Amino acid sequence: MPTSERIGSYLKRAEQALHGAKNAALRPSGLTVPQYAALLHLGENPGMSAAALARACSVTPPTMSTILKNLQERGLIERTPHEWHRNILETRLTADGEAALANADAHAVRVERGLAAEFSGEELATLKDLLGRCVGHLEAARIEHDD
């Protein structure tokens, strides 16, 4: 089957184009897309562990460890031992991290709004539904193959 007929090819190209557009938009804020994603998840879920963040951001634990190290060195996050599980570090945004997230999010939201504007309301709802179905099918297939 030629790549022009493979749905995975279209999904990958769309994901790469979105990643590239967000990288360009985030450049002035000094953050990469994975760093921005980590800050975004921490803004919504303060205290997440590195493992939970890795899952939420769809990166490996070693990659998340590097992301967190870089964000901590820049003073954007702080990591403290969990109150009961001392071997788990909770990660939270610092005031500088909140400011960096707000700045970066303004840039990233522009990319997403521009993309959404390419579709009518009905088309956007259909696209979200179709992509949700793709995710559901692929996650079910992964679980089936893991068994």
Automatic annotation (TrEMBL):
Keyword Metal-binding: no
Record-annotated HTH marR-type domain positions: 4-136
Record flagged with keyword DNA repair: no
Organism listed in the record: Actinomadura meridiana
A Pfam family recorded for this sequence: MarR_2
SUPFAM superfamilies according to UniProt: Winged helix' DNA-binding domain
Name of the protein this chain belongs to: MarR family transcriptional regulator
Keywords on record: DNA-binding, Transcription, Transcription regulation
